[in-house]
């Protein structure tokens, strides 16, 4: 059976904090909102953008304006103010060599994700990049994961999701997909308690170890 690994982007493959926080600040200013502490903005990296602005108190009728201003700043260069997590390219290379089919599943619009992957030389590892739509009709992680599985023709039992936030774990589970949480991103340990979680790993090397234990259907894994 072909094995499929879906990777979150922000906080899992890359550290995008600088560009995303700056884009949030630009958007909040454009929407007439007050300054927000850095830590609060950092905590919003990962979940859908529209949901993040609502959590920051942006009035619902101004969310579209805030999203538009964010994307203007982000597309102008903010999306490249990030860096690849050290050790990740070696993991991707080893998985592809081992016969895995890899894809990205991100709540970021696919058009941005594709450009970021290409800029940092990661695009060649992935068979597909599943992301949000610009109109927000597909933005939650469960919808993105389901879309990725459909395009790849991947049975949920043959796939695993790797991510750094609760949304990655819960979204994958809603699609019948098990997951591995990474600690080098933006999530807290308390986010990862879920019956369909295979493991929590703190380094890319440990991630590769866990994935390398799989043969065939990932639902048969025993990691403890």
What this model shows, in words?
With 224 residues, the chain is α/β, with parallel strands linked by helices. The chain has 2 domains: 4-15 and 83-220, Rossmann fold (3-Layer(aba) Sandwich); 17-80, DNA polymerase, domain 1 (Orthogonal Bundle). The protein has helices at 17-30, 38-42, 49-55, 63-75, 88-97, 110-119, 141-152, 166-174, 204-212; strands at residues 4-7, 14-15, 83-84, 101-109, 128-132, 159-163, 178-182, 197-201. The strands form 2 sheets. It has a 6-stranded parallel sheet with strand order 5-4-1-6-7-8, sandwiched between helices. The chain is globular, with a radius of gyration of 17 Å. It starts with a strand and ends in a 12-residue tail after the last helix.
Question: Secondary-structure blueprint of this entry?
Answer:
Blueprint: E1 4-7, E2 14-15, H1 17-30, H2 38-42, H3 49-55, H4 63-75, E3 83-84, H5 88-97, E4 101-109, H6 110-119, E5 128-132, H7 141-152, E6 159-163, H8 166-174, E7 178-182, E8 197-201, H9 204-212
Parallel strand pairs: 1-4, 1-6, 4-5, 6-7, 7-8
Antiparallel strand pairs: 2-3
CATH topology of the largest domain: Rossmann fold
**Alpha-carbon distance between the two ends:** 24 Å
Number of continuous helical runs? 9
Secondary structure: helix percent: 25-40%
Structure summary, number of beta strands = 8
What is the H/E order? Answer: EEHHHHEHEHEHEHEEH
- Would you identify the regions where 5 or more consecutive residues have pLDDT less than 50? none
Q: Overall pLDDT, averaged?
A: 92
Secondary-structure-derived class: alpha/beta
Q: CATH top level of the largest domain?
A: Alpha Beta
Supply Rg: 17 Å
Could you say how many structural domains there are in total?
2
Instruction: Order the strands across the largest sheet as they lie in space.
Output: 5-4-1-6-7-8
For the biggest sheet, the summary is: 6 strands, parallel
Q: How large is the share of residues in beta strands?
A: 15-25%
CATH superfamily of the largest domain: HAD superfamily/HAD-like
General shape: globular
> What's the architecture of the largest domain, going by CATH?
3-Layer(aba) Sandwich
